[in-house]
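Hey, I was hoping to borrow your eyes for a little while. I've dropped the whole record in just underneath, so have a look:

——
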Amino acid sequence: MDPIPQVILENHSKDEKNFIILKVMPGQETPYYYVSDGNRIAYVRVGNESIPADATALKRLVLHGTNITYDSVISHYLMKDFSFTKLRSVYRMRTGNELTDSDFISFELADESGRLTNAGALFADESPIRHSRLFCTRWYGLDKASGVLEALDDKEFSGSLVSLLQNGIEFVKNNTKKRWKKTGTGRIEMPEYPEQAVHEALVNALIHRDYMEIGSEVHIDIFDDRMEIYSPGGMFDGSIVQNLDTDYVASKRRNPVIADIFSRMHFMERRGSGFKKIKKEYRRSIYYRSDVEPLFRSTPTSFFVILYNLNYNVPEKEVLIDPEKMLIDPKKALIDLENVSIHNAINKLNANQATKEKANLLFEKMGFDKIFGRKEIMETINISVTAAGNLLNHLKNAGLIKAVKGFGKGKYQFVRQNEVVEKS
């Protein structure tokens, strides 16, 4: 073998028999070649077999052995030949800061000579990496061959990763429905799929997909009872997700440069597992049922997230609140109702979508109990002092926050919607 892997030989005795145990340690200097009779072959494990590595698998092994990720590799594309209008505008909208040319170098989107990394090329308005696409289909019925009408809607998107995310979310919104129920303080919206769960699943699909897999794209397939999001490439560490407890899966990133950019724009958190967050979004819904728990499935070359339609086969007149949950934990049910109410109120702000997203993010971080001012807003959701001031003004004018005394000047707290009703 070349190079020689680290091995450990141990003597072992059992039932009056002597054994030599050979342990081959995981190596970091991949690829490891089998050399014999003029042949030099690298093998990879697929299922329960070892097979010769093809060209793509060999490239992966070389990158791993040099501690380099695909998205950080310098490409032959020049930054001056491409525009980044979408990336720059969304970055400014979500952070309050301009994305400068020097940031491209700092964030590993380009090198000092002006050449783009693969990550930089993927964020270009007209991405030259052609297999970075998103296929979306709303199917008729419960599978892809209903025999009546195959697809109700289908779209193919290409371009910047930011555009792919936005177009994918918009496609889902256009092809799913919301119910709503009146309450004493307004109304509760009941979407078929929790929006944050869909967002998280699609973000993960775009970030963690294997971009070395040519000829395969991210897919969103919506059926009557479920949504399936597919991305090329299995678990980064080679494990099979069905064999894992997804509440305790550590976050490992196949494309850390791409993940960092999405994190800076607050599309994802730097820490934590997306699996847990997706399931949390389902479980926090007051209409959650155990039979709609999201599923995750992987093979060595593919990954699927299956999100179930919360409203499928549920009569519209039925109260979608689990009676047992109300009896066992009425406080939690009340908190869920309050959270839905504040999000609904935020979404009705007389402000642009970016401001509403920042307000929702601030509430997710602060809740009703934490006290904050302009400085805390800047630090919590990473926006400029001007943007923080504008956000405070919008929330104050809408009566969604109240001034708090005893903590210094300009400190506020989110107002529970039942307080607003009582005062009015």
